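Query structure, 373 tokens:
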């Protein structure tokens, strides 16, 4: 019987003929920001151009489940087993500083060790590591590299906009929708702006209570998918410090995360949602949430965080020396869509420059033990 899911084909992607030119412009802007961030962000270090502030490096274990349905047992999920892992929790902002200034977008980046197969990064095909870089919203506020050119500028300048109160906030919104005056009225970025509001209105909760999505679509072997990490309901119910008040201290997310992990273990379900309809579950439009009534999320693995202490002085230093990218995956899990495609070289060049400026060795670790020892 034929599968109800859409089979993967390279034809599902649409690539702008000006993609390479726009991507190089984004890389140039990113490099200039990272170089200037050594002084501008007040940390004395170069920071990432997104997820600049990390909240903790956490040891984990990924258990790929046995006896999955064939459509879900694809790629790395075709082989049951346990793998060591590292997790970085972070804020999505390109800026460091007090949590109250950074917005509500947060991220969970996952690095899984001892994965067979070459990665899609040509300079490290044999790393045997596999990354996810997920955010706490089912949609993203940008679809094309051309749009990202002005959206990137807006987010880098966001503190200046919002420091001016409501007038500055209104200018930010206007410049977002109109592309800083570059878009014709029929091309205004309404869908992207509404997706931005979805992200901006996420509740302020303990990082362990958020669900984290893969932002864009990815290949899932013979199929197309989105991936999310959802809190295990029993673990979520046990979280003590549930809400976050950013006005109470400069740093609020990290202490709340550390307190929970010090007292108890935690589990996320790694879940896959297969594409069943390219019209209603588009690959090239990240502003559209895929309806679960068309295709539910199915748990394919468990991400377990053991009870641990992440408050050591070097925890954030070790976290910051790591590199995460959605392209450190095998071909069976390739990112799909224009913006996901752009992240490959933007992330790689960003990582290279940041490690150079911070005098950090840039290489993939062979194990979680080496990083945390």
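Result returned for the query:
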């Amino acid at each position: 019987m034929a599968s109800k899911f859409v089979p993967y084909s390279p034809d599902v992607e649409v690539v702008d003929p000006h993609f390479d030119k726009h991507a190089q412009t984004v890389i140039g802007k990113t490099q200039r920001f990272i170089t200037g961030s050594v002084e501008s962000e007040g940390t004395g270090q170069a920071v990432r151009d997104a997820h600049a502030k990390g909240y903790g490096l956490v040891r984990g274990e990924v258990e790929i489940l046995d006896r999955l349905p064939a459509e879900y047992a694809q790629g790395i999920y075709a082989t049951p087993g346990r793998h060591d892992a590292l997790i970085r929790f972070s804020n999505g902002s390109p800026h460091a500083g007090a949590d109250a200034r950074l917005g509500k977008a947060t991220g969970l980046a996952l690095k899984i060790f001892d994965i067979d197969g070459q990665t899609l990064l040509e300079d490290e095909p044999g790393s045997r590591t596999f990354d996810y870089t997920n955010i706490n919203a089912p949609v993203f506020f940008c679809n094309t590299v051309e749009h990202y050119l002005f959206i990137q500028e807006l987010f880098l300048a966001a503190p200046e906009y919002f420091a001016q109160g409501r007038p500055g906030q209104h200018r930010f919104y206007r410049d977002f929708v109109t592309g800083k005056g570059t878009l014709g009225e029929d091309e205004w970025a309404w869908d992207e702006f509404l997706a931005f509001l979805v992200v901006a209105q996420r509740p302020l909760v303990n990082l362990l209570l958020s669900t984290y999505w893969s932002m864009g679509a990815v290949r899932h072997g013979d199929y197309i998918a989105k991936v999310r990490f959802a809190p295990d309901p029993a673990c979520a119910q046990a979280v003590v410090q549930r809400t976050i008040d950013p006005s109470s201290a400069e740093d609020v997310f990290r202490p709340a995360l550390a307190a929970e992990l010090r007292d108890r273990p935690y589990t996320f379900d790694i879940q896959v949602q297969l594409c069943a309809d390219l019209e209603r579950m588009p690959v090239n439009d990240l502003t559209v949430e895929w309806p679960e009534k068309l295709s539910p999320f199915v748990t394919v693995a468990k991400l377990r965080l053991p009870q641990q202490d992440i408050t050591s002085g070097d925890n954030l230093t070790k976290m910051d020396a790591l590199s995460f990218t959605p392209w450190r995956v095998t071909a069976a899990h390739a990112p799909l869509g224009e913006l996901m495609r752009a992240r490959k070289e933007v992330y790689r060049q960003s990582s290279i420059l940041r490690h150079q400026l911070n005098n950090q060795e840039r290489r993939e670790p062979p194990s979680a033990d080496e990083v945390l020892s």
